Amino acid sequence: AGKGYDALSGHNGSEFTVKKYMGKSDQDTCFRETLTGGWWFKRCNEANLNGRKLTLLLPTTKPRGITWNIQGDIKAYDYTYEKVEMKIRDADFGFCTGFSKS
After folding, report:
1. Fewer CB within 10 A of the terminal residue: the chain, N end or C end?
2. What is the phi-psi region of residue 59: left when phi exceeds 0, alpha when psi lies from -120 to 50, beta otherwise?
């Protein structure tokens, strides 16, 4: 995301899932019908890089496709992204660079 906000931290401890297998409590608080792809849906759609690229159909609705919610930015859900890239590294990444964790 452009501002560098970490929208994934809220999903820590969540299992990777698809909306079909979301728990009842998640279904009650999320826009379940608009979630797509597999993701860590702990807090609904705080971040979802597997969402569809959507466009706004009606002025009263918000797209829920590729999402990266930026804390404090009330328009973050309105942003659309052409593409996203996710990079994953080991928690002990420092081992590879010579700066291991103590």
Report:
1. C
2. alpha
Question: CB–CB of 54/78 below 8 Å?
Answer: no
Measured CA to CA, the distance from residue 20 to residue 34 in angstroms comes to: 12
pLDDT in tens, 25-65: 544 455 566 666 777 766 566 777 777 666 656 556 555 67
Give dist(CA 69, CA 84) in Å, integer.
14
Using DSSP's 3-state secondary structure scheme, residue 67 falls into: strand
Output the pTM of the full model. 0.55
| Encoded tokens for 27 | 């279904």
**Burial of residue 67, with CB atoms counted within 10 A of its CB: 0-12 exposed, 13-18 middle, 19 or more buried:** buried
